Structure formats: C-alpha cells, structure tokens
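Suppose a colleague, Dr. K., hands you the sequence of a protein chain of 89 amino acids and asks what its three-dimensional shape might be. Before reaching for any lab equipment, you can write down a predicted structure in token form. Begin with the sequence itself:
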Amino acid sequence: MALGARRGAVAWQVKREIVILVLTGIAIGLPVALAGGRLVAKLLYGIRGTDPISETAAVALLLAAGLIAGYWPARRAARIDPPVALRHE
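The predicted structure, expressed as tokens, is then:
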C-alpha cells in the first residue's frame, strides 16, 4: 500500500495466497487419502475405500475452512497503516 496498492488489492493478494495453499494441500492430501482408504479397505472386511460423497464434502469443508481462516489476516493486512508496516520491516 505504500507503493500505491489499494486496500482491495492487498486483501485479494492475501486471499489468493491462502487459496493456493489450501488447493496445494488438497492436491497432495487427496491422493494420499485415496491410497490410505484403499489400504484400509484391503485390511478390513466390508469397508469401502472410496466414497465420492464424503470425499467431496471433506474437500469442500477444508476449502471453506481455509477461506474463513484466511479472511481475518486478509482484512488485517488491508487495514494496516503503510508507515507503521514499513517501520516494523
């Protein structure tokens, strides 16, 4: 903001970084969860390793939790006074 960025642009940048982190975590975690589910299905009788509804719900819940958790830092970053931020750098 000290170089001319608007508050909305700063908030959007923080939110974009949060979304990238959440999507990276989902991209890494989903295949691991699927592999783990197949392993558990082989070890236990009558258990399915994949359930598309619960996996979709878990991904949506994680994405929503990440966005909600990232809202406050984005809001705080957009409201910070540039001279104060530069003094603490």
